[in-house]
């Protein structure tokens, strides 16, 4: 407890300007080779899923009942599924939906979770207790019933998908953010900033937020796959992607049931899914390093 | 400390009340009832059928009746498993799920923590990349893929382990492993992130500067702070684990709470939904309390949990 | 490590079973009730038939009635009176004799409106059973105001608002009505507070019905115990399939002292169905029940035919996931599975033909149209969809489980009745019909149509395939919507769909169990279709005892269905299951009934997996 150094003061006095922080971060990110490769790969996959289905001759929904479960080959690059549909087209089409859902829903949960967690942790006391009990309550509500009710009340709406996913995924994010905020709040440089008379919002956004980004970014990169798979669960309840449209989550789910008969049905969607998320993960790590306010000092 | 715990327990009462109320009305508003089936029965008979379980009364009356019974510790009869009380079904299924959850958590911690620490200490090295790639694969392989995959390998091909059941120790290995690998991957990622965060903190640098051995620094100081996000994640995750995983319990045919939890919603088994939700809520509340306590003890600075 | 090795080198259930004589049974799902008078599922049936035996039993191959508790029976000429002679050595599992009174008690219980059994209507064939069962009746009426118009009548008709004739009153007249006696009052009166009495000139009085239930004795239900071992059942109509009907669990007896002990006569959810409490008269006794894990039954030494029973025990496992069930089977954990995942059928057929079985199953897979909304209010559109459905391709390329294309509604051969194939595949004609419709309505193409189904891989595949077919042949866009089961059920009940998936499994082997659902206003109709001739035909068939004539009526029903097409039959079900070759005495039957007392386990040399 006595080991805290007086160095944090230097950090405060430096007063990292907003624009230069992000600019520096970008430069540092570019210096990280793995992160850069990941970034390019990620852009490549995104373009592939956006443009691919437009260029491809076979559509995700064209059936050929005489050519079911065809293994990968010249005819269809990734093979065909139980209705003779081209898996390549389905993977690309599914990527569109999964990436959209994955990022939008994660962004929603990130925004809500971080804002909520920071507020709760920073305010502390009774407000914190109240806000965290609300989180406890939301954790406990039965998700299935919640989703069914949403659909009954609002019909099948794509936006609902984000609400449903956001509603569960922001909770842990909020708790992690709150934990970090609580701990940072007592750090000397924050106390110093407060002593200097900076406004609450300035302290929150300039000093606390950059310091808790590390775990938050990592948790966000973990949320993306969770969200994409949750989408497959939601489509069980009728929310989300409707057949015959595809998504990576639903392709993986269906593929896992046919693992032994047609391994390509799980392999290719799984490959795209894993590679994309791996890239995202390294990108996230790079971003974390780049944004780390203290890293510059190394 | 004691005061803090007492306050939190007092806070739990209104929290549980709100959960019970919301869940009660949510389940009743969802379309379909516990006695709906493909065979339509005349409205008169259905009314009588529902009357057996007090479902014909006005909703608010049912609600107060339920609350009244709840206060006496009575969770009511299950509508799906006729002749059984919700509380006895939970009492039988929970130990199974808890056992599975504990095993999985143990595996997850044993694999995830060291992996995360090593990756953080050897940041951007081959170790780091290998470990984190493996962890990410673990996260990308959802349990409904990992489970059948492990079964295929260890049961169908090698014939070492049984593919389902919950009878002997051997039965517990595959499901615990499936869950443990998944959570282990999460823990590894979060540990690494938390460690990196603390390793950069000034007090660690000071400790290092003062000449403390690196191992000592890691064990005494860095791990403490680094575990913060892990512990926060583990609170609800652990509650989820010991209250059962529907997917794992279905794949491995394990008679745990997770199957009750999910099927109750599908069956509109109102009392069972409420019973399992309240049980889970208690776990969440207790574990989040534990998390906050651990957090206070892990973090030297945050004395106010 | 020792643990591990011990766990895996142990012989499997199936290997042990030969010696232990235990059948390991994949039950599919946990039954809601084990009470025969409340049960309503296939899984409940599978357990209950081990625990309880009815008046008659089933031949394991043909399901023809053979002596059960009754050793013989006489049927009157007109087919209305059945006299059963119960065997003297039939015992309950606690040693009590099974008597005719027990059966009457059981019928009273299931027909008791307060018990609210979902399957009580199975007993409506008994004389007056319906009258007793269908709840509250008008017992007496209080005269609020009776006009003079009635003074000179001895009989008054009750007329409800818009619902027609509902009952009769007998008046005791001497200038004005002083008392009334109810001769027959329809059930709809139970919901009226007061009834207006009409005469030719209009309203002429008001009476208030006093509601109560009819007692068993008053109702004179046609079930009488002549003595301990003679039971007489009188039917409403001659019912050619009556003896087969008796094998449905709703006709099974329950042990009266046990029911009384747990106060379960008109109460649900009592613990009488737990192991230790359950008293049955079947070949097995309930010995263990772990919810969601296992139900175990052990051989009943008190069963009258215990000699025939070869199995020592049956263990039922409610494994819901078909994939898990298959893995269980492959590892020797199960002798037989409830289902096979549709995607696995091809693989298993090719690699393990000795264990996969395709058995006919009395059921039809079909879609309902909603006739109350366009475009399916027009018969041409419904016919076009039917004509554009290539049923052969569906069963060959999509379901692949040996299903039979449904070209009529009743599965051919149901109780000897095989309707003509009328639903054909003719895309040209379909196109012409749609064009005709579009021209008349001045439309370019059909609007997008929603097809609703409950979430399941199998339903999805069929829906996706049909979506493709209809797009090809009719140029119509179909939007698939999957729904969670209970949400789906309420959607169907509210008829909130354009096109929806459905399935019907026969309760007994007679066309009536299929055709009666399309009567006007039947609880299962849900299409909005109504046809006077159709209703009339079914009534004629019910009163007819000559099978030839009945079949003619049914045939005309089928013809009407195909002409009006309120439905789109797709295929007839097949029960696909995995069964170990060690299981002997197990035969494919239409209802998937398998009397366990004939089942034996025998070693075979076949190399399993």
Account of the 3D structure:
With 298 residues, chain A is an all-alpha fold. Chain A is built from 11 helices and no strands. Chain A has a domain of 201 residues: Orthogonal Bundle (MetI-like fold), CATH 1.10.3720.10. The N terminus of chain A is likely disordered. By secondary structure, chain B is mainly alpha-helical. In chain B, helix 4 runs antiparallel to helix 10, helix 6 crosses helix 7 and helix 7 packs across helix 9. Chain B starts with a helix and ends in a 7-residue tail after the last helix. Chain C has 3 domains: 265 residues, D-Maltodextrin-Binding Protein, domain 2; 78 residues, no CATH class; 216 residues, Dipeptide-binding Protein, Domain 3 (Dipeptide-binding Protein, domain 3), CATH 3.10.105.10. Chain C is 27% helix and 25% strand. In chain C, the strands form 7 sheets. A 6-stranded mixed sheet of chain C has the order 18-22-17-21-19-20, with helices on both faces. Chain C has a 4-stranded mixed sheet with strand order 1-16-15-14. The radius of gyration of chain C is 27 Å and the shape is globular. Classes of the chains: A mainly alpha (298), B mainly alpha (305), C alpha+beta (609). Chains in contact: A-B, A-C, B-C. Chains A and C meet through helix 6 of A and helix 12, helix 14 and strand 20 of C.
Features:
heterotrimer, A: 298 residues, mainly alpha, MetI-like fold, 74% helix, globular, disordered N terminus, B: 305 residues, 13 helices
Indicate the proportion of strand residues of chain A. under 5%
**Element order, helices and strands of chain A?**
HHHHHHHHHHH
Strand order of the largest sheet of chain C: 18-22-17-21-19-20
Mean pLDDT value of chain C:
84
Assess the beta-strand content of chain C as a share of residues: 25-35%
Q: Indicate the percent of residues in helices of chain C.
A: 25-40%
How many helices of chain C does DSSP assign? 18
CATH top level label of the domain at 97-297 in chain A = Mainly Alpha
- Under the CATH scheme, the architecture of the largest domain in chain C is 3-Layer(aba) Sandwich
Q: What is the fourth-level CATH superfamily of the largest domain in chain C?
A: Periplasmic binding protein-like II
Helical percentage of chain A:
over 70%
Mean pLDDT of chain A: 81
Query: For this entry, what is the oligomeric state of its chains?
Result: heterotrimer
Which class do the helix and strand fractions of chain C yield?
alpha+beta
- Count of discrete structural domains of chain C: 3
Q: Could you tell me the number of beta strands of chain C?
A: 24
**Rg of chain C to the nearest angstrom?**
27 Å
Please work out how many helical segments of chain A DSSP would assign: 11
């Amino acid at each position: 407890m006595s080991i805290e150094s007086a160095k944090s003061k230097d950090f405060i006095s430096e007063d990292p300007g907003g624009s230069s922080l992000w600019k520096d971060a970008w430069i540092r990110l570019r210096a990280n080779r793995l992160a850069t490769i990941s970034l390019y790969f990620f852009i490549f996959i995104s373009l592939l899923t956006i443009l691919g289905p437009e260029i491809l001759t076979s559509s995700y929904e064209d059936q050929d009942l005489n050519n079911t479960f065809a293994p990968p080959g010249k005819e269809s690059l990734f093979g065909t599924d139980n209705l003779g549909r081209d898996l390549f087209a389905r993977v690309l089409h599914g990527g569109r939906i999964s990436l959209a859902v994955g990022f939008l829903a994660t962004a929603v949960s990130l925004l809500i979770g971080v804002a909520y967690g920071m507020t709760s942790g920073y305010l502390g006391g009774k407000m914190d207790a109240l806000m965290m009990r609300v989180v406890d309550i939301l954790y406990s509500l039965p998700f299935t019933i919640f989703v069914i009710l949403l659909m009954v009340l609002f019909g099948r709406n794509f936006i609902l998908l984000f609400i449903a996913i956001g509603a569960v995924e922001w909770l842990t994010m909020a708790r992690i953010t709150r934990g970090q905020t609580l701990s940072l709040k007592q750090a000397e440089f924050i106390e110093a900033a407060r002593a200097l008379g900076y406004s609450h919002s300035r302290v929150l956004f300039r000093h606390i937020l950059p310091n808790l980004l590390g775990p938050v970014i990592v948790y966000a990169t973990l949320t993306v796959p969770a969200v994409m798979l949750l989408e497959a669960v939601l489509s069980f309840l009728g929310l989300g992607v409707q057949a015959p449209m595809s998504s990576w989550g639903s392709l993986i789910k269906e593929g896992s049931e046919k693992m032994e008969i047609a391994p390509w049905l799980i392999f290719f969607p799984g490959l795209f899914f894993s590679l994309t998320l791996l890239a995202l993960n390294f990108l996230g790590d790079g971003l974390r390093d780049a944004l780390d306010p203290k890293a510059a000092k190394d | 400390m004691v005061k803090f715990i007492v306050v939190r327990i007092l806070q739990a009462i209104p929290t549980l009340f709100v959960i019970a109320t919301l869940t009660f009305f949510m389940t009743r508003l969802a379309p379909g009832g516990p006695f709906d089936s493909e065979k339509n029965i005349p409205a008169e008979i259905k009314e009588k059928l529902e009357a057996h379980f007090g479902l014909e009364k006005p909703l608010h009356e049912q609600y107060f009746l339920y609350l009244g019974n709840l206060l006496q510790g009575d969770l009511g009869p299950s509508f799906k498993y006729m002749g059984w009380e919700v509380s006895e079904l939970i009492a039988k299924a929970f130990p199974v799920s808890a056992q599975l959850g504990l095993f999985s958590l143990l595996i997850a911690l044993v694999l995830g923590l060291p992996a995360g620490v090593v990756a953080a200490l050897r940041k951007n090295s081959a170790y780091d990349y290998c470990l984190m790639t493996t962890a990410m694969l673990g996260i990308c392989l959802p349990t409904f893929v990992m489970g059948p995959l492990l079964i295929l390998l260890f049961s169908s091909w090698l014939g070492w382990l049984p593919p389902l059941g919950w009878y002997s120790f051997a039965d517990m290995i595959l499901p615990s492993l499936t869950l443990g690998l998944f959570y282990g991957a999460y823990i590894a990622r979060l540990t690494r992130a938390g460690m990196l965060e603390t390793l950069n903190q000034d007090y660690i640098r000071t400790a290092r500067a003062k000449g403390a051995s690196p191992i000592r620094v890691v064990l005494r100081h860095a791990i403490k702070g680094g575990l913060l996000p892990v512990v926060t994640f583990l609170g609800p995750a652990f509650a989820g684990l010991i209250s059962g995983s529907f997917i794992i319990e279905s794949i491995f045919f394990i008679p745990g709470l997770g199957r009750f939890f999910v099927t109750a919603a599908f069956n509109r088994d109102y009392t069972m939904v409420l019973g399992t939700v309240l049980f889970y809520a208690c776990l969440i509340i207790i574990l989040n309390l534990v998390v906050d306590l651990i957090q206070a003890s892990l973090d030297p600075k945050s004395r106010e949990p | 490590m020792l643990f591990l090795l011990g766990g895996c080198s142990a012989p499997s259930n199936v290997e042990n079973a030969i010696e232990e004589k235990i059948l390991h049974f994949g039950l599919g799902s946990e039954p809601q009730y084990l009470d025969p008078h409340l049960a309503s599922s296939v899984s409940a049936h599978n357990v209950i038939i081990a625990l309880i035996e009815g008046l008659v039993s089933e031949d394991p191959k043909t399901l023809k009635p053979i002596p059960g508790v009754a050793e013989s029976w006489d049927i009157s000429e007109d087919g209305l009176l059945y006299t059963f002679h119960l065997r003297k050595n039939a015992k309950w599992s606690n040693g009590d004799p099974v008597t005719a009174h027990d059966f009457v008690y059981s019928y009273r219980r299931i027909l008791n409106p307060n018990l609210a059994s979902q399957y009580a209507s199975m007993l409506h064939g008994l004389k007056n059973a319906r009258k007793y069962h269908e709840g509250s009746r008008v017992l007496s009426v209080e005269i609020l105001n009776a006009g003079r118009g009635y003074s000179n009548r001895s009989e008054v008709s009750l007329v409800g608002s818009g619902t027609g004739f509902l009952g009769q009153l007998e008046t005791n007249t001497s200038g004005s009505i002083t008392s009334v006696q109810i001769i027959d009052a329809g059930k709809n009166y139970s919901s009226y507070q007061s009834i207006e009495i009409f005469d030719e000139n209009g309203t002429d009085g008001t009476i208030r019905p006093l509601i109560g239930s009819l007692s068993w004795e008053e109702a004179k239900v046609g079930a009488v115990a002549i003595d301990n071992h003679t039971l007489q059942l009188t039917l409403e109509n001659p019912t050619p399939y009556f003896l087969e009907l008796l094998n449905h669990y709703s006709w099974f007896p329950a042990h009266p002292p046990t029911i009384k002990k747990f106060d379960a006569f008109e109460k649900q959810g009592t613990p009488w169905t737990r192991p230790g409490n359950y008293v049955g008269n079947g070949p097995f006794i309930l010995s263990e029940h772990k919810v969601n894990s296992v139900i175990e039954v052990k051989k009943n030494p008190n069963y009258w035919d215990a000699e025939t029973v070869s199995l020592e025990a049956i263990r039922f496992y409610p494994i819901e996931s078909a994939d898990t069930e298959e893995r269980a089977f492959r590892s020797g954990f199960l002798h037989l599975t409830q289902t096979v995942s549709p995607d696995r059928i091809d693989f298993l057929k090719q690699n393990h033909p000795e264990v996969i079985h395709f058995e006919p199953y009395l059921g039809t897979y079909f879609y309902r149209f909603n006739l109350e909304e366009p475009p399916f209010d027009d018969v041409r559109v419904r016919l076009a969809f039917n004509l554009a459905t290539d049923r052969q391709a569906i069963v060959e390329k999509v379901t692949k489980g040996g299903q039979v294309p449904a070209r009529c509604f009743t599965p051919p051969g149901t109780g000897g009745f095989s309707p003509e194939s009328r639903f054909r595949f003719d895309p040209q004609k379909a196109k012409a019909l749609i064009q005709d419709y579009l021209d008349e309505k001045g439309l370019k193409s059909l609007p997008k149509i929603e097809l609703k189904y409950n979430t399941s891989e199998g339903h999805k595949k069929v829906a996706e395939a049909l979506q493709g077919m209809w797009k090809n042949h009719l140029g119509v866009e179909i939007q698939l919507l999957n729904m969670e089961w209970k949400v789906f059920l309420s959607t169907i009940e509210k008829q909130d769909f354009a096109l929806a998936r459905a399935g019907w499994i026969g309760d007994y082997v007679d066309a009536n169990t299929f055709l009666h659902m399309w009567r006007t206003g039947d609880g299962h109709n849900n299409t909005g279709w109504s046809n006077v001739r159709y209703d009339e035909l079914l009534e004629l068939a019910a009163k007819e005892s000559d099978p030839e004539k009945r079949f003619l009526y049914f045939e005309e029903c089928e013809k009407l269905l195909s002409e009006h097409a309120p439905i789109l039959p797709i295929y007839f079900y097949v029960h696909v299951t995995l069964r170990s070759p060690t299981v002997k005495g197990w035969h494919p039957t239409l209802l998937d009934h398998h009397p366990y007392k004939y089942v034996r386990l025998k070693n075979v040399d076949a190399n399993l997996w």
